[in-house]
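Appendix B. Chain record.
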Amino acid sequence: MSTFQPVRGMRDILAEDAQVLNYVIAKARETAGLYGFKEVITPVVEPFELLSLKSGDEIRQRMFIFDDLGGRKVSLRPEFTASIARLVTTALRNEPKPFRVFSVGSVYRYDEPQRGRYREFWQANFELMGSSNPEADAEIILLANSLLKTAGLEGYAIKLGHVGVLKGIMSQEGIDDKTQNAILQKMDKKEYEAALALVASEKCRNVIHGLIELNGTSPFDTVQKMQKQVQDYEKATASVENLAAILKLVVESECEIQAVDPAFARGLEYYTGMIFELYVPQLEIALGGGGRYDRLIEAFGGEPTPAVGMAAGLDRIALAMQVQEIQLKTPQQKRVAVISIKDEQKGEALKIAQMLRHSGIWVEFEVMGRKMTKALEDADKRRVHYAVIIGERELKESKVVVKDLAKRTQTQVEIARLAEKIKS
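Structure tokens predicted for this chain:
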């Protein structure tokens, strides 16, 4: 008889991996709170029109799309930003600006499965809406840096760019939005020759090629060279100046930017300004990224609202932590097995187990009907710290036997002091 397996690209997250993922989720929530972001929960299923409006062809082609029983075309969310934009145009439209909104959950894309890339994966999403100032961009970058730092990652790098530079050049050359998006999609995949082949103007091709080839000795040196490269393009020049202002704020805040990439592009169409991604040397995939999108809310029917945000790939951060062998910084929880010697004491044993649980102690109650020796062996295999043994003779004195499974010692403890004894 065949056994069922998870759908390709989906996976079961077992206890050890789930512990790491939940740790990263907790760190994302902690970081959100430190930066003043309030959590909202949005549906996993959204109207296809909403999710596809500004996602870009790359994302649209990988969405899980289906008709619901009412005949409506819907999709599993491929990311969070469209849902947050919907909220801003409806439930949050009268809230004072800026909005600082945090979301966490699973998202879905029909990608080719590989290490660190799944069709169902977990993201933490941070959106700061209402400000067009460089300090808002800097805040998002600093938040991303804080998240990786608090997760304990080492040697991570932040790559910074500005999609407004390329868009400014192409707009001044009269390239339409559809072609611009196609060029940026190819540049995102590092398909530079194919991208340049879509540019009709020789001057424009040369300027973009110059950006692709540009190398600086430092992020600030790269920005200076970018200014010279785009000096004939007004909007591109303004974008480089904006990038310089953001970079200055971030570096002055003692957050290191490892690289400025003049030809950097990301897969979503809605970006209008600063963009960035996060990496560790052990993995080739980005751990997260984001950028500025000043026209998305308006596209969804809301008031013109400048915005900047980022998404952190929680599975990927968890994977990076495991690759770097980072130990979770969580308080060591004492785990206890409660075992009754005879059936007659099971009710009292359950009562004691509940008492310990109410005191915040993790308890595994023996439910398999094992003999004492086997029950203790099982508790040892499960890495339980203490076995609390309930016997008739000890109960008459309001006591139990506590066995330290690591030290192989045991002692009698009064039931009234049992929780205190285990905690200490």
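Further analysis of this model is presented in Appendix C.
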